[in-house]
Structure prediction request, 694 residues.
Amino acid sequence: MRLTDNITILKGIGDKTAGIFRRMGIETVEELLRCYPRDYDRLEEVSRIAELKDGSRVVVRGTICSGVSERKSGRLTISFSQAADDSGKMNLSFFNMPYIKKMLKKGAGYYLRGKVHRRGSSFTMEQPVLLSPAEYEKQRGKLLPVYPLTTGLNQKAVRKAVSQVLAAMEAQNLLPEVLPPRILAEQDLCSASEALFWIHFPEDAEQLLRAKKRLAFEEFLVFLLLVKKMKRSAQAVPNAFPMLETADTVRFLEGLPFRLTEDQRQVWSEISGDLTGEYMMNRLIQGDVGSGKTVLAALALLLAVSNGYQGAMMAPTEVLATQHFQTLRGYTEQYKLPLKPVLLTGSLTAKEKREVYEKIESGECNLIIGTHALIQEKVNYANLALVITDEQHRFGVRQRETFSRKGAGDSGDRMPHVMVMSATPIPRTLAVILYGDMHVSVIRQLPAGRQSIKNCVVGTDWRNRAWKFLEKVTGAGRQAFVVCPMIESSEESDLENVEEYTEKLRGALPERLRIEMLHGKMKPVEKNRLMDAFSAGMIDILVSTTVIEVGINVPNATVMMIENAERFGLAQLHQLRGRVGRGQHQSYCIFINGSDSDRAEERLDVLNHSNDGFYIAEQDLKLRGPGDMFGIRQSGALNFRIADIYQDADMLMLADRVCGQITEDDAWEEKEEYLELAALLARSVRNNIDFPGI
Ligand code: ADP
Ligand code: MG
Prediction:
């Protein structure tokens, strides 16, 4: 077996299953190996029925003591039975599992695993998983990997496939060690193959922690080396697209219904200073949600266009790109600006795309707004001088680089000015490492006159009252978001999911309310349609995953309710909260804390008391330790594959030091001890293995 082999060489994976894996971006053995678990599951010790606690997830060793009865309501079939141990009896209920009737035999003994709820004086276990005594004994005490899945695939199948690769890895020494032994020893890191064994099947928490540390270190190191390379090539490049201040930007600024804040003015002078200055711009604009970055982007693009160039702006989602397009088209019409904007996204038809390409190439359009469709091979720009990426933490280094290579000039050898905007406040200590190759501007201040958002952190027992509140607010004509961490229900997770939640909410609230759901597995056209409908006020409550976290601006939405808030990073929760409080109405954010740990309480309390993104990010860093293995990944922000800039901040700093040592010697890539590392770096560049990072 080789790392580059297709996964069909594994037992149990035929063309059909391979097709399902492909949907998750997994085709080769290596990609499977690098599909890390998103969580780990451990079977609970056996509980006695007399000692059950409401709402807990337990294992009961019970004997089935009644036949199975069924009840149908609509498309739902619920099957009921009962199990007993020597301390008492509990009820069992199964949803849409009609075959359970044949399977469950009165008198048979099982280990039953599931969440129990008290109803009156007795407990009901919902949707129990049944394990034979042998299965229970085998899995007991172990940490079982829980993988991200897609329809048609279950945990068992992925575990089996991964185990096969790990077995081959052991037998054939499949995986090269990229880090030199010296570094492994100095930093007390485990080897590459140990790390992979332990990340998939750790014996205990300590192994898992060691694996995570090693993999995070490696990921950071490779990333930092890449940034270093870019930095070297980007340093002090003479300004190939020099610009002059024009009357258009002044007129636009004077026409705006508001005055720029002090911070905005400062940042605008930095931007225009770059564009009109001696060197190419390579600047990151960090500004808290709602601090008004879009208008700065508009100014920069206007300056480029007034100087006779093209400007482009790239957003991570179609929804956001469309919104920017509408904003900029609005400005163009209202202030009679010389902009000729065009929108380029993946959902255009082939014919529409060709027309847009034409207009870009001929220079007929001078402002191009879109998603990553903007950097596809077929797009040739006439004279692109400035590219802005919004919410850039969603783009990888590679994408950023490709985009900047789209520069004007016949051979594309003149890279355009680069400006990136991010609403993810990153603590200064980390920012200087992660954005080592860029100048950083910061907007801390929010425009005056914003009403501050009212926050509350509550337990799940408060949910019904929160729903009543949604009913009241939407009744008054406002709109609301509800965010759940999961898309659909799954065996391993008690977390709220969008699909079931939408149903529950429709059942609980009056029929006149229009409640829809939105999540990342939907087609882009569908997502756009829903977002448009929500923006237009045709939907009252949108139940969604975190896909709505970036950039969206719907001023009439005044409530953000977040389920399982304990599962998100603070910075991410702050982003989500930023979706409300954008209009003239009082806005609210309800964080539902689904855990009873004090730590969760303490973390969420930070949000309750502050609306300052930078302060929140610092606290997030402080309140998380490396011991937080099952902790929260900041899924929206700086999305590395396994590393988390907050949780693994120690590894980031270490990788930064080591990167510094390695690159002290310009010719490090030729040294024997770094050959494997250099090869990995070259591979990631060539194969476009992106760091969803930065
Ligand atoms: P973000 O920085 O999160 O991208 P936006 O650019 O979407 O924020 O701005 C949020 C809202 O604030 C927009 O409606 C914008 O027109 C408005 N805005 C921007 N700057 C100011 C300002 N100086 N005073 C008042 N409102 C402003
Ligand atoms: Mg924005």
User: Anything to note?
Assistant: Residues 258, 260-261, 264, 287, 289-295, 423, 447, 553 surround adenosine-5'-diphosphate (ligand 1) (CB under 6 Å). The first strand starts at residue 39 and ends at 41. The two ends are 33 Å apart (CA to CA). Confidence is low (pLDDT under 50) at residues 408-412, 626-637, 687-694.
